[in-house]
Specification:
The protein is 45% helix and 11% strand. It is built from 17 helices and twelve strands.
């Protein structure tokens, strides 16, 4: 079967779908991955067909995301501004990427357009998620407001965070989606009452994370399928630079510090803060420059800057990781069994930071907005020296290693195609715009 997987975002939003695509291809499907042009070499390197989505992640992250933080309303305005600037070109590229497909898979971020493209093409659809998106009483919306555990009627408020967040998000996207429907997809516009009540959980959803990290809620149904994480297999041909190999062989084992695709407008001061924290904690470190280009110059000999190193190769060899809390990076650190310090910047990162702490696999998160050298040093010291954290991290790692998320997802897709095709076809009201 011809399957097209669509995703938008940074490397962490693309790599799991490369892994999933490879699994589907190995099972005999013809797989196309529709992502931004930036990732074409990465997609083709792994033997998948590339299709272009007009969704530049670098431009999107050029804003000062620290001002967005964990406020869902600021996050959604940021997202709406990006899509508004792209106009119909995103919808056009989405339509072209999926035009000849027989099955659409799309990330929950891309789903806002995906369901409408699916309605225009009249092809079956499976939504996917790298973080919780379906309303539940078990936990708050992953990119939204956090309901503290002491709150009375917490389950009710948890579920309410999804309703409030989605209504606000849908209102921001309402006009843009209807414009794309009318001008690109040839579909009638939707009335607000219908759009406000769109429910992606109508379609089966593959959740690309583990129930060992996010427990399966008792109020979910069979359409919510937790497969486990979609990890790429380790590149056996990878050969690290000799300087890195020597650095890792020295004692004490270094920690890893890297914030991936997060663009921090104060790269120089952030580098200074990291250097000071490591000195206070008396730790060596491998420092990933990332999109912010940390460690531009003048680093002490106890810190080695790297541009790119596979997480699955590096993380098992360090004493702890200090990361931004993206879904993919967090998963890699947990699978490595490595104590994890999370410095969340925005979006779903605070959610994953709380999950790490709840699992006991790392200390309490240190939000970027409140980051100081002292607080970071204390968190690093706790992650490295606390025996309970080391043990819990190792236990979580063992569970994730025993779970084959890609194989589970491929099996789920094949079973859905064989038994539940009716639940994967676009709702008639999406095509007609009538309730």
């Amino acid at each position: 079967m011809k399957i097209t997987i669509s995703s938008v975002g940074s490397r962490g939003d693309v790599q799991p779908y490369v892994a999933l695509g490879k699994g589907l291809a190995a099972a005999g499907h013809q797989v196309t991955l529709a992502v931004d042009q930036l990732f074409q070499p990465f997609v083709e390197e792994h033997g998948l067909t590339f299709a272009r989505l007009n969704a530049d992640p670098i431009k999107a992250l050029e804003t000062d995301i620290r001002k967005v933080g964990s406020n869902p309303f600021k996050l959604f305005r940021w997202m709406a501004d990006i899509v508004r600037e792209m106009g119909n070109t995103y919808v056009e590229s989405y339509l072209e990427a999926n035009r000849d497909t027989e099955l659409m898979l799309f990330s929950n971020v891309a789903a806002m357009v995906g369901v409408h493209v699916g309605a225009a093409l009249d092809v079956p659809m499976i939504s996917t998620a790298l973080q919780p998106i379906v309303p539940t009483q078990a936990y708050s919306y992953s990119a939204g407001m956090h309901v503290p555990e002491w709150m009375p009627f917490r389950g009710m408020f948890n579920k309410l965070t999804y309703t409030v967040s989605y209504r606000f998000l849908y209102r921001l996207f309402f006009e843009m989606v209807n414009q794309g429907r009318e001008e690109v997809l040839g579909l009638p516009s939707l009335p607000w009452r219908m759009y406000a009540n769109l429910d992606l959980s109508y379609y089966p959803i593959l959740h690309g994370f583990s129930r060992h990290v996010v427990p399966f809620p008792p109020d979910y149904n069979q359409d919510q399928i937790f497969t486990g994480y979609w990890f790429l297999e380790q590149d056996e041909d990878y050969s690290p630079p000799e300087t890195l190999r020597r650095f890792l062989a020295e004692e004490p084992r270094p920690v890893y510090i890297g914030f991936g695709s997060m663009v921090d407008k104060e790269a120089e001061s952030l580098t200074g803060l990291v250097v000071e924290a490591l000195a206070l904690a008396n730790q060596r470190a491998v420092l990933l420059g990332g999109w912010t280009d940390l460690g531009g110059s003048g680093l002490p000999e106890t810190i080695l800057k790297v541009d790119s190193v596979p997480h699955d190769w590096l993380f098992p060899q360090v004493a702890a990781t200090v990361i931004h809390g993206g879904a993919g990076t967090t998963a890699a650190s947990l699978q490595a069994g490595t104590p994890t310090v999370v410095v969340p910047f925005f979006a779903d990162q605070p959610f994953w930071s709380r999950r790490v702490a709840k699992l006991g696999a790392g200390p309490a998160p240190v939000p970027r907005q409140k980051l100081t050298a002292k607080h970071l040093a204390e968190a690093i010291t706790q992650a490295v020296e606390d025996a309970d954290i080391r043990q819990r991290a190792a236990e979580v790692g063992e569970k994730l290693h025993a779970e084959d998320g890609v194989a589970n997802a491929v099996q789920a897709v094949d079973e859905l195609l064989a038994t539940r095709m009716d639940r994967m076809m676009p709702e008639e009201r999406l095509k007609t715009g009538k309730m």
